[in-house]
Design brief:
elongated; 23% strand; 29 helices; 775 residues; disordered C terminus; six-stranded mixed sheet; binds adenosine-5'-diphosphate
Length: 775
């Protein structure tokens, strides 16, 4: 009968009921739909499980069958009466149980509505005591986990409510801030933990959060100070998050004590500052030492050069040579250590200047040739003729790098050649400089370490060559500062090639190619040595303009003269003998002799000065034949026409310098201080001024400034600044006030001569024509 009734009711609900059943089934809670007579119209899966567990699968149709008799009245009251106010009521009941097991108790919650027939229908939520138990223990468990996590957290977590009172405080707070949980809960955060100077900002921040739900620090991680219980401040990292529960809002602060990290950071900063000030002191000391050591060395080496000219005795010459070589070595060691210290102290900057590649290469080669004391090694240089003549790069640094590489190559080569080549790199804005030798080489396993500081490949081998092991470390650092790279290829006992690739730019449309006339055509090369052929090939055949034929005996040479017309003949001076001389009437009009030879040839044969360069050879071929005469003499004559003013406060420097310059043919006046130099420049026309920078009263810098601002004929005289201080800043200051060049003391006279001559060819003086025409 119960079933019949249920069916009728179901029909009443129609398809809606089916849908309702499905919806109720997916709920986790046990739910029954019951009519006003207690008939169960729908029960969901969870409710079926509870009923089955209690009544062992008895099929029941009424809620009255579910509960014990004494509960019927409670149920009936709720099913029949409807409380309009609450619409919901609940009661605790005991379930019928067929087994002996402990009776199940449950809370029933009735939510009641009228259906469309105006009879009451109830949704009954069934919650057994075991459900409640489970709920309670789940809450307890999660609470226990939460507080264990909080307490184990290295960060201190503090939660405050909207009034700024502390509602949570994790255990680690005690070690971080000194306060225990009991001491702080319920108290205001601002009074306990916020430092005085931050309290206003904190209160403002809280107010803003209360009003708008946002705050300046929410969601951020900041470093601030917190107040410790004992009154001192501790540095903390702070992150704030906000939480909302209905109308309630909380803010939790995650606080990490960063005292140790801060101490470590401070220790690092202190160490860095200490190191920097030590480095600064070192740099000052070196700069001072540079001046103090180089000045007397200047006088010493200069006097030696003069002495050398007057020595005739073989033994004396030998001692002189030893003294000179040792002096030069001492100077280069001092220079390397100074350079390295400067680079280490970060005192180098790139200064792009207009650089004439030809004079750059020439000055390096002339000075290195001068130092070279081995006739078995030929030094030569080559510039690719399609390069522009003038490029923008840091000339001083590049000069230093190439000098290091060339000097090393000469040092480690006993026989053969050292060649420095400047070419276009693989891409158009790149310059490639290679220094190649036929020396001892470097084994593959040692190649990587040669660029390290104080590294020599073989302590035993390299000690005999001398050196500090700093040269390549300096070269690498300089190249890197200029934005380039340096590498090497080498085979033991065969030789080494160092390659530097540097970025450059140019606005000079003139390449060497466009300026040089000669060199196009077939060259005949004569030497009894195969090596000479090879060297000439390397020097000239890289340019498409030049082709070569080789002869190694007089007969071969004779045959060539008979059969071909040659544009030029290159003779190896060392292979010239009487037979060759007898052929000289067949020589082409362009004939050059390389290296020493004994008797002079007929006048059209020109001597090529070493070190050889391809450009130098082409220029020589370009000269008109009546211009060749004795090149050394013509150079001296050229120098003789040049009047140089040497300004130095140290008498020995003036005496030695003057003599060295006069030996090179210059006409020299000297001045002992800046004022008398300025006076001298008012009276006499000079072609060049060599100005010492450090002089009492009026320094060289000030004197240059006055000269440049003057209106005398010498206002634009080329000025070379001389100083013992090798600091780059000094070079910049000299150039900034108007010096044209910078030569460090003690100077090498050949290098200085080269610089003076270069300046003459570079400078067009506005006063020149006027003065010379007057003179
Ligand atoms: P050093 O003052 O000893 O020359 P470098 O830094 O200039 O110092 O060179 C480091 C080492 O690299 C040298 O001691 C030498 O062993 C090796 N080295 C440099 N250049 C060459 C070269 N052209 N041929 C052979 N070995 C070289």
């Amino acid at each position: 009968m119960g079933l019949e009734h249920a069916k009728n009711q179901l029909e009443l609900f129609g398809s809606c009921a089916e849908m309702l059943t499905n919806m109720l089934d997916v709920q986790h809670e046990a739910l029954l739909l019951v009519d006003h007579d207690g008939l169960i119209v729908v029960k969901n899966q969870a409710a079926t499980s509870i009923i089955n567990a209690s009544l062992s699968n008895q099929d029941i149709t009424s809620v009255y069958e579910l509960v014990t008799d004494e509960n019927h009245e409670k149920i009936s009251k709720r099913l029949k009466n409807f409380d309009l106010q609450s619409k919901q009521s609940s009661c605790n009941v005991s379930f019928n149980s067929i087994s002996d097991a402990q009776a199940v108790t449950a809370a029933l919650t009735f939510t009641s509505v009228f259906n469309k027939e105006n009879t009451l229908i109830h949704l009954v939520k069934v919650q057994t005591s075991s459900d409640e138990q489970a709920n309670v223990s789940a809450i307890e468990r999660s609470e226990a986990i939460r507080s264990a996590i909080l307490d184990a957290s290295l960060d201190t977590l503090i939660t405050i409510d909207m009034e700024g009172d502390i509602v949570e405080f994790s255990a680690s707070g005690e070690s971080t801030l000194g306060w225990s949980r009991e001491q702080v809960i319920g108290n205001s955060l601002v009074d306990l933990i916020i430092p005085m100077e931050m309290r206003d900002a904190h209160i403002q921040g809280m107010k803003k959060y209360k009003d708008t739900g946002t705050g300046p620090l929410l969601g951020k991680r900041v470093e601030v100070n917190a107040l410790h219980k004992e009154g001192h401040l501790i540095p903390i990292e702070l992150a704030l998050v906000s939480m909302e529960f209905g109308s309630e809002r909380y803010v939790t602060a995650f606080i990490r004590d960063i005292s140790e990290r801060k101490q470590a950071e401070q220790a690092l900063i202190d160490a860095k500052e200490k190191a920097e000030s030590a480095s600064l002191a070192k740099s000052r000391f070196l700069s001072f030492m540079s001046h103090e050591i180089r000045s007397p060395l200047n006088a010493l080496l200069g006097s030696l050069q003069l002495l050398g000219d007057s020595l005739h005795d073989k033994a004396e010459k030998k001692y002189f040579h030893i003294a000179q070589v040792s002096g030069d070595n001492l100077l280069s060691i001092i220079n390397e250590i100074l350079d390295f210290s400067k680079i280490e102290a970060g005192h180098i900057q790139v200064h792009q200047t207009k650089c004439n590649l030809e004079s750059l290469l020439n000055t390096i080669l002339v000075v290195s040739e001068q130092k070279k004391d081995n006739d078995q090694v030929r030094l030569f240089g080559r510039i690719n003729t399609n390069l522009p003549k003038i490029v923008m790069l840091d000339e001083i640094k590049l000069r230093q790098v190439i000098t290091i590489l060339v000097d090393n190559a000469l040092k480690f080569t006993d026989k053969g050649m050292v060649q420095c080549a400047i070419e276009q790199g693989e891409s158009s804005g790149e310059l490639k400089v290679t220094v190649e030798d036929t020396g001892v080489g470097i084994s593959p396993d040692k190649q990587a370490k040669v660029f390290a500081e104080f590294e020599q490949v073989d302590a035993v081998r390299d000690t005999s060559y001398g050196g500090t092991g700093l040269g390549l470390a300096i070269a690498k650092k300089l190249v890197e500062v200029m934005g380039g790279s340096i590498g090497l290829k080498s085979s033991l006992n065969e030789g080494t090639v160092f390659e530097v690739v540097l970025p450059y730019y140019t606005d000079d449309a003139n390449s060497f190619e466009s300026e040089l006339n000669s060199g196009h055509g077939e060259f005949l090369v004569f030497s009894k040595q195969q090596e000479f052929h090879e060297q000439m090939k390397r020097l000239l055949c890289q340019d498409e303009r030049t082709r070569m034929t080789f002869a190694s005996t007089t007969d071969e040479l004779d045959v060539q003269f008979q059969s071909e017309q040659y544009y030029a003949l290159l003779l190896d001076g060392a292979s010239v003998d009487q037979d060759i001389r007898e052929l000289q009437q067949h020589f082409p009009s362009h004939t050059l002799v390389v290296g020493k030879y004994d008797e002079p040839f007929m006048s059209s044969v020109k001597q090529v000065e070493e070190p050889l360069t391809n450009i130098g050879m082409y220029r020589l071929l370009d000269e008109r034949s009546d211009h060749h005469a004795d090149t050394d003499k013509s150079k001296l004559d050229l120098n003789h026409a040049l009047r140089v003013l040497l300004v130095d406060d140290v008498e020995i420097n003036r005496v030695v310098g003057r003599k060295l310059l006069e030996n090179k043919g210059f006409t020299v006046d000297d001045s002992a201080d800046g004022f008398s130099a300025i006076k001298a420049l008012e009276v006499e026309y000079y072609d060049c001024v060599l100005m010492d920078m450090r002089m009492p009263e009026l320094s060289g810098l000030d004197a240059i400034e006055i000269i440049r601002k003057s209106s005398t004929v010498n206002h634009d005289v080329p000025i070379i600044a001389l100083t013992a201080n090798a600091e780059t800043s000094e070079v910049e200051r000299c150039k900034a006030v108007g010096a044209d060049e910078f030569v460090s003391k003690p100077f090498n006279i050949d290098f200085l001569t080269e610089v003076i001559q270069n300046l003459q060819s570079k400078t067009i003086r506005s006063s020149l024509l006027e003065t010379k025409s007057k003179g």
